[in-house]
């Protein structure tokens, strides 16, 4: 888990630089790479990612609460629990930045306290550390592919937040402080929660797992899911929804719309919303699917900001037409070619996961690419975008110096 968090840490920290440097939200930053009109497509993709993450985490919290309440097979109480958990996650964003910050701080300290209890009550801490190092050997059939799949899942978990740090960093006191805070938070959280997850998985945190142990475990999972859902929405998704329809939607109404969008995303697989079984069975698949949308967008925006524009932006042109970021009618075609190129290697696995094609129709190579979805799409999209922008720059330079 720590290694997966470290892999996702670089784009997460780099993504905070534009917000801390220029004070612009993600919806405005995306105009530099995708065009002043094309940025709306990227913003819509991030809305889908954020609302899907909200729905997934609300489903995890509702599943644990449903198990604690011993709900029957009737789907109505489970849907009611899901809506209640989603509303709890959205409420801080509706109340404003100060309330959001206080709620996330309380949730973070509560999670650390519960993680400390789970780790402290483990009967053998040496075994716990050995498991974190990989002391619990993988089956021979899994080997390196199994390790890479697990690494892809854990890095995908943290990578889903890479597109949200631009908005968070707008209020940072300094770029350096923001980067250090993100690095410490991600790596420390991964270590603590990884140890706590191993303690839970071993069912040894409280010996025979008495009622107190079950209560602490469920409280940890519920608080973790609600904290993740609240952070996923934050101020980012309401602002994105407001930027898509500024004359109709305000930030607080955007926060309320997150619930509707999240239910619409999860409606693709309605059984996942009302199933009574633990959420682990479908969570891994959803996590990969959601992170695949993050990878190419993140790769394109970071390459554009750091390698193409050298971390320098014309803020005025970001807010007007016919400026530097107009491209072709407000659309940067090269960015969307790179986006499709990034999705190409993982598209077969994604289609199989969504039930559009048979799973056995996907070859071993494409299955492996899908398992590393966000990493593969990030690298391919970033590379293709860089090459296309360099070609565009060379052609524009040649046209300017060509004799008339």
Structural overview:
By secondary structure, this protein is an all-alpha fold. It contains 19 helices and no strands. α1 packs antiparallel against α9, α4 (75-95) crosses α10 (211-233) and α7 packs across α14 (280-308). The N and C termini lie far apart (60 Å).
Annotation keywords:
mainly alpha, 404 residues, 19 helices, 0% strand, single chain, Hydantoin permease
Explain the layout of strands and helices:
Blueprint: H1 2-22, H2 26-34, H3 39-69, H4 75-95, H5 97-120, H6 125-133, H7 143-159, H8 165-169, H9 175-202, H10 211-233, H11 236-244, H12 251-266, H13 270-274, H14 280-308, H15 315-318, H16 333-343, H17 347-353, H18 364-371, H19 373-401
Helix pairs in contact: 1-7, 1-9, 1-14, 2-3, 2-14, 3-4, 3-10, 3-11, 3-12, 3-14, 4-5, 4-10, 4-12, 5-9, 5-10, 6-9, 7-14, 11-12, 14-16, 14-19, 16-19, 17-18
Can you describe this structure in just a few lines?
By secondary structure, the protein is mainly α. The protein has helices at 2-22, 26-34, 39-69, 75-95, 97-120, 125-133, 143-159, 165-169, 175-202, 211-233, 236-244, 251-266, 270-274, 280-308, 315-318, 333-343, 347-353, 364-371, 373-401. It has a single domain, classed as Hydantoin permease (Orthogonal Bundle).
């Amino acid at each position: 888990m720590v290694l997966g968090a470290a892999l996702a840490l670089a784009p997460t920290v780099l993504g905070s630089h534009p917000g801390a440097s220029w004070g612009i939200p993600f919806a405005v930053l995306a105009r530099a790479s995708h065009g002043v009109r094309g940025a709306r497509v990227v913003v819509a993709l991030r809305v889908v990612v954020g609302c899907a993450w909200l729905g997934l985490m609300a489903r995890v919290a509702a599943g644990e609460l449903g198990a604690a309440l011993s709900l029957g097979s009737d789907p109505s109480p489970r849907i009611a629990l899901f809506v209640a958990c989603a509303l709890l996650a959205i409420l801080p964003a509706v109340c404003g930045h100060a309330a959001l910050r206080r709620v996330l701080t309380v949730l973070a300290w509560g999670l650390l306290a519960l993680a400390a209890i789970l780790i402290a009550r483990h009967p053998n801490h040496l075994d716990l550390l050995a498991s974190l190092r990989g002391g619990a050997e993988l089956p021979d059939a899994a080997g390196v592919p199994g390790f890479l799949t697990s690494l892809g899942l854990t890095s995908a978990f943290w990578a889903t937040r890479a597109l949200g740090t631009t908005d968070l960093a707008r209020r940072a006191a300094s770029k350096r402080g923001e980067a250090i805070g993100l690095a410490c938070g991600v790596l420390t959280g991964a270590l603590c929660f990884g140890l706590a997850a191993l303690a839970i998985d071993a069912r040894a945190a409280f010996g025979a797992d008495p009622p107190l142990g079950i209560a602490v475990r469920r409280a940890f999972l519920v608080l973790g899911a609600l904290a993740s859902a609240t952070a996923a929405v934050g101020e980012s998704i309401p602002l994105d929804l407001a930027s898509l329809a500024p004359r109709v939607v305000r930030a607080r109404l955007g926060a309320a719309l997150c619930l509707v969008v999240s239910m619409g995303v999860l409606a693709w697989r309605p059984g996942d919303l009302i199933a009574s079984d633990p959420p682990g069975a479908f969570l891994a698949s959803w996590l990969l699917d959601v992170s695949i949308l993050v990878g190419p967008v993140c790769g394109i925006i970071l390459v554009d900001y750091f390698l193409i524009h050298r971390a320098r932006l014309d803020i005025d042109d970001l807010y007007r037409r016919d400026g530097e970021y107009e491209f072709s009618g407000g659309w940067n075609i090269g960015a969307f070619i790179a986006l499709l190129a990034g999705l190409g290697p993982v598209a077969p696995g994604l289609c199989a996961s969504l039930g559009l094609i048979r799973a056995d129709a996907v070859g071993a190579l494409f299955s492996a690419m899908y398992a590393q979805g966000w990493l593969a799409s990030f690298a391919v999209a970033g590379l293709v975008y860089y090459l296309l922008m360099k070609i565009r720059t060379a052609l524009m330079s040649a046209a300017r110096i060509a004799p008339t």
